[in-house]
Amino acid sequence: MFRIIHAALASGICLFACIESKAEPARPLALGSLGALPLVPVVVFGDHPRLTVEQFANENHLDLVDVKRRHAASGVIHCGNARGAGQLTLADNVITTAAHVLFDEQGQLRGDSAHCFFTSTVADQEITTAIDVASVVSGNSEPYAKPAVHDWAVARLLRPVKGAVPYSLGAPAQTAQDIEFVARGHSDWGAGSAMSMENCRLHDVLSKGSEGTREFSFDCDAGVGASGGAVLNSNGGRLLAVFVGYRSIAPDQTMPFSTQHYNFAVTVDGAFRRAVEAAAGFSTAAR
């Protein structure tokens, strides 16, 4: 049995679901078989390779102001007593995230519009905006009981986030594609308010949803509270997928990326993409 973690926070505790994988039962990795394989901290509760915006810009020889501007779309979602990640997508009042950030284990919205907010940072100023929970469209409202490939959601904000550049949508994700993972909400970074960034790679398609979405494994580091974070193309401006969770036989250990230890994301394809486009079109017409 894999342990499948949906990485949202509730009162500081990880919300998780333990379900059986449809794949063959996981077997412990023999330490002697690891050889010189690079260690990829896919599930991390300790040291990790995630970078702050400042570190990412410096390491990749990028202009810091430009990096902050391009990623002002990434923010934190608080809904009821849960915290996750999300991002402005296609419009300055449309957000994408994982469904379990907004829906609880009973399939109920975690809060109303008075208790669900999106916070982003624009020009070094935090802006908090209420989520219109009546506008939520998702792959399903029971993300803890249904296959992870349906764990996606789109919602409108009650007002636009002025000055932020929303992520556009990228071409369909591909195996072995270089990506950039950007998220706020990690529990071990500044109480979940700081943004972290990392370059890594998509691996295999794990499953396909009836609505056209696909579930990909990927080897960026992630942690509790980062659910819903942006999986972007390598140039960092086009959204390909949202982070949903991880599967691991030993989630508290740093191990090589493998079929028994990986993070996974759901692509913005099919009904997910259409829901984003519809929400953005509605907001454009309204203004």
Keyword list:
mainly beta, Thrombin, subunit H, 15-stranded mixed beta sheet, 4 helices
Provide a quick synopsis of the model.
By secondary structure, this protein is mainly β.
Question: Explain this structure to me?
Answer:
With 287 residues, the chain is mainly beta. The protein folds into two domains: 38-62 and 168-269, Thrombin, subunit H (Beta Barrel), CATH 2.40.10; 64-164 and 271-286, Trypsin-like serine proteases (Thrombin, subunit H, Beta Barrel), CATH 2.40.10.10. The chain has helices at 53-59, 64-70, 99-102, 270-286, and strands at 3-10, 13-17, 74-79, 82-88, 94-97, 116-122, 125-138, 153-157, 168-169, 178-184, 195-208, 214-218, 230-233, 238-248, 261-267. It has a 15-stranded mixed sheet that branches. A hairpin with a 5-residue loop joins strand 11 and strand 12 (214-218). The termini are far apart. The model is unreliable at 6-35 and 283-287 (pLDDT under 50).
Distance between the termini: 50 Å
Overall form = globular
**Residue windows where pLDDT falls under 50 for at least 5 positions:** 6-35, 283-287
What order do the helices and strands follow?
EEHHEEEHEEEEEEEEEEH
Content-based structural category: mainly beta
